[in-house]
Structure formats: C-alpha cells, structure tokens
Write the structure tokens for this entry.
Amino acid sequence: MSIQMLSEQQKIFSKSDSGRYDQLLVLIKGRAADIIGDKRIVKEVGRWARGNVMTYEKDIFDITERGLELASLEAGDRVLDIGCGAGDDVAYFSEKKGLKAEGIDISLAAISEAREKHPDIAVKFGDGEFLDDYSSFTFDGVFMQDVLRLINLPDEALHEAYCVLKKGGKLVIVDEYHKDPDPKKMKAVAIEAQRQSKIPHKEGDCETDPVRFVDFRFDGAFYEGPLKRQLEETGYVIKIFEDVTDAVEAGPQEGDRREDGKTGRFLLVAEKPKA
C-alpha cells in the first residue's frame, strides 16, 4: 500500500470502523518494520494505537509548561497537538492557558477517550504525516510529545508541521534520545539514511524543496545531531535543545532503556523563519 493510499483510507475511518482500522494498523506496523527495522517501536506503536493511552502526571505538565515558555506561546495563540492521546495537553492548553488548541491522534480509542474525559476540547482522528485538513500558515505552535519516534515517516511529520506553522511559529518536541552516541551506530544511521534518500517521495507544497524520507532514529530513539540536521534541512531554526531526563521518571513505554544512562529525554524548540 502506498503512503498516498494510506492517507486516503485514514480519512474515511470513524468509531464504527474499528475492525477496518485494525486491519490498517497491521499495514502501518508492517511498513514501520520494513523501514525502521526496530521491533520495539513496532510493538509500541501497536500497543499505543489500540488505546493504551498515557495519562500525564505532574512532571509531564511541568515539561509542557516549559515548552510553552520557551516557545513564547500566549493566550489566544492557535496550537496543534499531534498525537494528543487522551487529550490532557489539549485541555491544559485550552482551559489553563487560554490557547486555541486542538489535537489529532491516529488512535480512534484515544480520541474516544479524549472526548469522554474532556468533552469541550477539539480533537479528531488524524495523522501527523498528513495534515491536509489544515491550510499553510495556520498555527502559532505545534507540539509533538512522545510521538515523533513512533511516526512511520518522521521527516514527513516535520515537513507537514512546518507547512501548517505560521511564519515565526514554533515546533515543540519532547522525546527520547541517545545521550552518548556510539560512533559505529551513527555510521550505520548515516549509511541507512543515504539509502533511504533514494526512495521516491512526494513534492513539498509550502515553499520548501521536495522532501525525501530519511530516518534519523536508531533503536527507538533519536540522535541529537541527525535530528537537528533534519530540522534545519526542512527549514527550521533550532532555538533550544534541553535534556529533561531528570524531570520525568521513566515510564512503561521506555522500559529498561535508561538503565545504562545512555538514553534520556529532550525538549527541543524550533522556529519557522519569519522572513
């Protein structure tokens, strides 16, 4: 199944289509396995998309607050939360911060949970790789918290976020990264990225060059350097990269990956240039 076909099928799903959605999920997982080669990511995608929705604790909101502060987002600004899960951040943005927030998630179970928990928030089924429902220059901020590493085509998600951001808008990412990169693994990532760059990909449509899929993950987490380079190639200006490992206890999704001290969590803010 092509990515375009996948996008078209995703748009027609509703809560009553859970069986067909599960079939699509199998295809998504298979595509992820082919591209990423990381079985833990594939397993995590499956578990997450079937509705094991994370409930944010206070420390998560502390990081969210930090992201808002660094992104200089204020009441009245329009914000999109990609991978909104149970909608806790969308509710926080809307009810506590006065932002015009909305969220999307690929999990129908998560959207159902969000609407039940927070009936007044704006959430809907959607995929960060396909933000066709939104016009360019729509949002002042886009948040991706614990979602970018799970997305099938992370570079496409960064490009789509770039498209829907206003000039001067901010992208906020919270995710996992390798704190002490292994040079051999870094070389392997570079070789694989070069191979993947030859795969045909869709044309850019918001004042950027054509984008090609380049994966910059390894073993379910990012490397700081390749991630920053991908953001810069997409058009962003990196404003800040902070290690926030100590601010959040390792959750069930991370398992034992932090035990060696080489994997941590980061908060990154990037800007779409104003000019």
User: Anything to note?
Assistant: Residues 49-271 form a domain with the Rossmann fold fold (CATH 3.40.50.150). The chain has one domain: 49-271. Residues 18-36 form the longest helix (19 residues).
